[in-house]
Amino acid sequence: MSDLSLNPSTSAAAWKSLRNYAWNSPAVRKILVLALLALTWELAARFNAKPILFPSFVETMTALWQAITTENLLQASWVSMSVLLKGYAIALALALVLVSLAVASRFVRELLQTLISMFNPLPAIALLPVAMLWFGLGEKSLLVVLVHAVLWPFALAALTGFDSVPETQRLVGRNYGLRGPSYVARILIPAALPSILYGLKIAWAFAWRTLIAAELVFGVSSSNGGLGWFIFRNRNELFTDKVFAGLAMVIIIGLAVEGIVFRIIESVTVRRWGMQR
Amino acid sequence: MLAREPLPPAVIETDRLTLEYGTDAGVVRAVEDVSFRVGEGERLVLLGPSGCGKSSILKSVAGFVKPASGVIRVRGTEVKSPGPDRMVVFQEFDQLLPWKTVRQNVEFPLRIVGKLSRSEIRERTETALRKVSLERVIDSYPHTLSGGMKQRAAIARALVTDADVLLMDEPFAALDALTRTQLQTELLDLAQELGFTLLFVTHSIDEAILIGTKLHLLSPHPGRTITSLDTDDFGRGDIGSARLESMSREVHDLLFAPSARKDILEHV
Asked: Which of chain A's residues have a Cβ under 8 Å away from the Cβ of B86?
């Protein structure tokens, strides 16, 4: 028991192995990076000393805590999230159907490729005025914009993924007599999973961006506004620290989904299968 | 000439097979007027230099490529589409699906056909993997295996279905020489044990003589039949022997010497 404290060489060795472990652990690295960024932010804000324009890290976190405990920020986030998930799911289902049809028919492929090149560069938020005109102020308009934001980049990634499935694996599937939907589900989707996951990540980021921007424009619509509305309201009242708290919430949710959800999916699929390092 | 002995029923039969494929520069003829038959338990090797369309012939027997003219029959029925009655082993290592373990890869064709019960599938898979001595890595993912092991797993996957015919498209071409020799003898042992009918494509003359009971030699651009040879009496004991070497030289001359080829053509 007392060996550790008595023997300096073992304690040095233990320290070294701990350091090695910390340095090799991605989680520790990530926390380190985040801490460094927070420190830089704090120092920059203190040096700047204009809290009304640029609140410091500590101020923002305090505001975030207050917003969560007293202003239902979590509920606002959940409102945003649930709309987002709805739009995301609709768009993914649509994209998978379109891309599967594009694999089967050259005409649908041409159609899909044309649609992607037309609509992918079109910022989703630019569609909002039209969507509001057609569907009024409400969730429907938000969903239209979200689906637009997710559908095209994801379809592009999935189509690219399907196209780059090795010829041998296609032939193996056909050799077993797989055709149509079962061919797509049992060969193409798993073989294209690295691209599909990449598309999911891109689409997720696009969806988040679009949703917050759309809520900034008309958060009033729903009885309980989402995160974007929280940011907009506090900006109007010049609660800059709360604006930053809202932004921090967006970032935290983004980081959590990217760093936890997608990382877990990747580690049990493409990394485990050696399809991605 | 007509009074021949009745031929034994053919497992694979091609009749005046011609294959074409479209390119930007127009239609290219890959194979012209090739006929052969493979009887029960025979191992026919398609042998020729690159560009002789041997892989195209195998792909058309598998049902991946439609003939421009001519017919392919497997056990009397014309081949129209791919199917698990003709299991293919490819050259490429990525023929094992990377998202499945070795066991799942071998089980896959059985699961798709869906005729067997869970326990039967399990048992058959394990037997097939034991035959290619892969029981040690049964639950590993393909990316952790060596090239030779991947090809063994692919062979197990072809054996597991009890397919009528095995089609092998240069399965050992990407292996190092030692593994290659080992897998060749293993394949011969399996053929002896199971008596499957095999269509095998290679560009290696020695491999062809060793594996095949019959060779079908092809000339390039487009692939035409040069001749057929019987090599049934060559086995694993002949590796490195003078007999194999002289046979190999003979085949080489047939394939590459223009005079020899002309000679043959005149006699056909």
From this structure: 175
